Each structure stands twice: as C-alpha cells, then as structure tokens.
Amino acid sequence: MAILTLQALSMGFEDRLLFRNINLGLEAGEKLALVGANGCGKTTLLRLITGELRPESGQVVLGKHVRLGYAAQVETHGSAASDENGMTPGEITVYEEALRVFAPVLALEKALEQLAEALHHDHSDALLHRQAELREAFERGEGLTCRAKTRSLLLGLGFDEATQAMPCSILSGGQNVKLRLGRLLLSGADLLLLDEPTNHLDLQAMAWLEEYLREYPGAVIMVSHDRWFLDKAATKTAELHHNRLTLYKGGYSAALKQKQTQAELDKRRYDNQMAEIKRIEGIIEQQRRYGQERNFVTIASKQKQIDRLKEDVVAPDAYLKELRFQFPGVPETGNEVLRLRELAMAFGEKKLFADVTGLIEKGERAFILGPNGCGKTTLLKILRRLLKPVDGYFAWGANVRLGYYDQALGSVSSSKTVLDEIWDSFKLMTHLEVRSALGMFLFSGEDVFKSVDTLSGGERARIALLKLLLSGANVLLLDEPTNHLDIPAREALEAALAQFGGTMLVVSHDRYFISKLATKIYALRPDGLFPCGASYEEYLDLSAADASKPVAPKKDKIINEYQQKKLDAAEARRRRAALARCEAEIARLEGEIERLHVALSLPENAADYEKVLALGAELKEREQALEEKYEEWEGMHDA
Questions:
Q1: Strands (E), 435-500
Q2: Residues with Cβ < 8 Å from 498, sequence gap 6 or more?
Q3: Please, what is the average pLDDT of the chain?
Q4: Could you read off the pLDDT of 377-386 as tens digits, one per residue?
Q5: Which of 33, 100, 211, 358 is the most exposed place for a label (fewest CB within 10 A)?
Q6: Could you tell me the pTM of the whole model?
Q7: C-alpha distances out from residue 450 to 421, 438, 456, Å
Q8: 630 near 152, Cβ under 8 Å?
Q9: 16/40 Cα distance (integer angstroms)
C-alpha cells in the first residue's frame, strides 16, 4: 500500500497556474527528488501534502497511521528550544534539545528507576509485571540507544562535542535550522518532507546526510538544487515542468538522461503537430478563397480540428525561453596569475589560517574547499584587498583584470530598477544592448522596470552574473556562485564558465558544480592550503584515505608521492582494523544485553528479588559500556 498518493492534484494562485492534474504514488522506503525551476510550485506541493494548503482540485491521500515530518526552507533566528518542562531556552543545550525527541522514552526510563526503588520494599507480582511492560516499551522506543543515536546524528550534522554542550539561545540562524533538521531525522517519521535540507551544511555534513537518508527506513521527498545530493540520496526523481509532474527512475543525473531521450521524442512530436496544423491552416486559407457556403462549413470543421490539436501541443524545452549566456573573449594574463606566500589571518584571538602558500596559473579553474568558518570567503576578501592579512603576502600576475561574484550579492544595488542597475554600471552600452543582455538573463518586457529590492534571491543572482559577464574580467573570484540559482540556471552557468577563456578561483559547496568545472582543488586548513588533486572525485579519494593529514607537501618540503600513498594506505588499514574491533565489541555487548533481558524475563528469575537486582546491575553496566563503545565508534568516523 502506498504511503502517499496524489490524485489529479491541481493548484495555482490568482491567475497563475502551478500544476494541473498531477498524480504520484510513494511507497515506504522510497526517496523522491522533487526538482524544477524556481517558482514552479515545489514548496507549494509540500505544503499541500502537509495539509497547510488546500488544492484547487484533486486530493492528497496519506496511508493509515502515517507520521509526517516536514523541514521547511525557513531560517529562524531565535532559539530552537521551547520552555516546556519548566526550562528556559537559555538553560537547554543543543544535545538536550535534540534528545527531547525521545521525551516519552526518557519518561519510561524515569518510571523504571522509580519502580526499581519500589521493588526494594514490594516484591509483588503486579510490580514485576509492570516493570516488564515498561522495559519492553522502553526498548521498543530505542531507549537503549537514543543517547548514542542523538550524539551521533548531531556529530554528523556538524555539531561537535563543544557545540552540543552550548545553550540553544546562542546558536546562529543556520545552526538552528540544522538543529531542527536533526530533531526531525530523530523523530522516526514515516514520511519526511525536506525543503533544501543541505542549506547551511558543509561538504562533510552533506555526505553524512546522504548516507543517513539512504538508510532511512521511511519514505522521503526532498526538494533541492544540490544535484550531487539528489544523485546520492534519491531513488526516483519527479520534475515539475510545464504545469505537469514527470516521474523518472533514479537520481538527478539518471533522470536527466531519460529527460534528454524524451525531449528528442517530444521535439519530433511537436514538429509533426505543428506541420499538421500548418497543413490544415493551408486548407482553411484555400477554402476562404473559394468563398462558397459549403466552404465555410469546411472552414469551421477544420478550425475545430486545429483547436483540438493545439490543446494537445506542448512546446519542448528547445522552443522555450531559457537562461543563456556566454563570456566574451578576454585578454590573456601572464602564466603566473596569483602567487600566495605564507598568508595568515586572524580576528583578535581567533586564528583562521596560517602559512597559506600556493600558485594559480593561467587557465586553471581552481576550487578552494573546506568546512564552514575555515576562512574561505575571508581569503577571497584578502585577495581583493578588502582585508589585510596578519602575515604573509600575495601578488597578482601581469595583465590581470579581476571580476568578483559575492555570495551576499553586495554588488547589486537595492535602490534601482533592473534596467538602471546594468546601465549605470556600463554607461557605454546602448539601450538596445542593455535590453538584449537582460533578455538573455530572462528579464524582458516590464520586468526590466522592476525595483531590484522586490526581486527574489535567484533574480538578484542573475543580475550579479550579468554584471560579471559584462565586466570583461579575465580572472574570476567566485564565492558560492550557485547559491540562489535553480538547476536550469546552474547548468547555464556551468556551460558558460566551461567556455570562459580566463582563470577562475572558486569557493563552492556545490559538488556537482565542482565536479563539472574543477581542474585543481585546494583544501584550506588552519595550517595551510593543500593541493588535493585535479578533480572532485580525486579530492574525495584522497580525503577518504586520510582526511586528517595534508594530502600533498606544503612549501618546499618534498615528499615522495609513492611513499606518501603507502603511508596513507597503511594508516587506512589501521583505521579499518580498529573500527572492525570496535564493531565486534559492540556486537558482543549487544548480545550480552539481549541475554540479560532474556534472563530478566524468565519466571524463575522474576520471582527472585535479589536475582533481579543482580541482573539489573549487570545490565546497567553493559549498557554503559555499550554507550561508551558507540561514542568511540562515532569518534572513529569523525576522525
């Protein structure tokens, strides 16, 4: 039986139709990627499933007893905690707030402790029976593992032990969003609705979330522009396009191949339909020239035939308006575009990085990767001379003309119209040239007279990219350029940058984007900038071998690559062996715990008060040891 069924669902707002007569069935365990351009109705569809909105027609049918969990794409700035149970938000730590998901189970634990005290004085069968009932419910509710599970999940989302001990009241908006996501994942919902779940996650946390969702027993619908995430986490893909929902097997890349095949068929069908319409229009024109009464009857009949054909006509993508642009030719730079030497940066006592040394050469598409807060954006600001490093220096090469894309979109004014924002920056362009350029970026007609402060983040990002294109820069510094862009816009940007004739230095968390464009990857760490291969796949391989050590020599220290790989392989084997030993001990402890539970349930033991106490003490000791082993296991994965 389907966990979710959408039946002939239609929805729109005012005069704008979002989708019509869409149908979908989702089974338990399926992971659905919901994709489409900004504004096509993806979030609206999620809100229809939750019941927050009502459809114009059709219905949403949830399976019986299905528990629904929804993570909206909304950023909160206050504490994630509430004041229930008499605690104020400032008193609740991140770990405690996440653990509240298991409040009913923790209440059972407290009740079991009280029963254990009561059994010191009362050995009645009623109390023993009640204890057995509570213990069964406690175990069924993951009481034995809920603490370890909570810590493990928070670590996966990027909350280290120190952050888990912080009060929720001092979390940033992004951290609050991650904490809400963590609580939702712990809730055990049968159907998770996730709207842009990778927002605010660094690369490590994204990879963890992909694995978590793949193993999640419930069904998931995820809305995301992160194509790498969708490839890894989704088992099927649904695209909202042309007011319709089209279903494909597999993740985003698999769906794209199927879509391209279907597009060729759609184009042939469209061309045939248009040819038939043109043929019938020719007959109508001929009948009009005859001008007899019977000819008008034929004309009316043929016109109805055309109307029926037009109702069924859907223009394929090739005939639709789409974002398209190409960087113009740029003047060449010298072979050495940028040299970095022992750069260091700190803000007061907080040190970001030191000893950053490297060379960017002409034509390279270099990406800088690293966790949130490691200083990637700060490094770009230093290179633009907006910040002064505390140590070291850098030098731009000959004939460098710099262009910068700011993830905060600071280059786009809020007080101008779209037209004036471009024209004021490029005064030598004619009105026709500006309108034509804006048209390539999907600003046409009255859109060019909109005030910039009324635009969406994606529209403002398109303006920033247009200004970058028109600047004539031959070296691009790009800080999260795919933020705010939907998938079609990201693909257009990738195509344009692939043809760009200059040099790029890019900060990005978009792994699909990185994989498409990178020719060199660096990892920014507190102790320097380290080369990590020429592709994202190579970066992953090197990081998996040993994420804690530099994967290449820094400065003038030469390490034989073969020897380094042998050292890395040996270290990886050591880690695997230690992990296997830890997992074996966890399995042994779990077996011991299961044995003790069986012993406690035996009638001859349940009637023996002293035996129950001894077995209970032994059980508690094993459970404590198991929790410690889980923490050790988590530490190995985090290392």
A1: 475-479
A2: 516, 517
A3: 85
A4: 999 999 999 9
A5: 211
A6: 0.71
A7: 11, 12, 11
A8: yes
A9: 10
